[in-house]
Amino acid sequence: MSGIADVERLAASLRHHGVGTVDIAFVLGSGLGAFAERIERARVIPYAEIDGMPQSKVKGHAGRLVVGELGGVRVLAQQGRVHLYEGWSVSEVTRAVRAIAQLGCRRFVLTNAAGGIRRHWRPGLLMTIRDHINMQGRTPLARSESGYARPYDDEMTAVLHEVATTRGIALDTGVYAGLLGPSYETPAEIRMLDSFGADAVGMSTVAEVLAARACGARVAGISLITNQAAGITGEPLSHAEVMAVGNAASGPFSDLLQHAAARLAS
Question: Any catalytic annotation for residue 61?
Fold first, then answer.
């Protein structure tokens, strides 16, 4: 479990910066930070100015909080997260989610860039996460906290699909496998994940989802399929490809979240 004192210190710093209760919080994965530009009456707070806020050094994670409004609701966007593969502990990875929940937020949308395991999926596709497989070898939960067999909220997910249909945005759904990283999976590992029922694979999200649920929040998840997983195309994988596809898909991704925000928060 995240250290209580560290979470409280971060929550206190957020209050000091004027971040009160928000209706919904978005955690933006690699290459997906452009959504925050849609936020109205926005105020940007660099992580470096927030006491107790872990900062990632991974490209595509700007390291800023953006607070403002969308569709008449108060929103917060977390541009970047820290990862277990960077050497952060599971307590540190989930500290921000816990602190934001402590301020009263009860709706989260967790997003990430992921490799697609389904052979017919192409880079740029968006996928709602209906379930996950935690293969990171650790949990953020303490013995006193309750886990949830179905951590992803069906109603929030349904809203995302309804908005996607209305806006003409391609949106599928599937199971996300969270691995430790930092190396990309081998073709043999991808075949194993396929046999387990995974549709996409990445190196984040699952710990934050579990922590948010333990704090009493409802959660939806979205993966941007940035590449086909190892062994499907025979091409080498790279973070540059992740970033390029993220930038190309930022329009429909941002459009989806912008038009869903008010309904997700209600």
Answer: yes
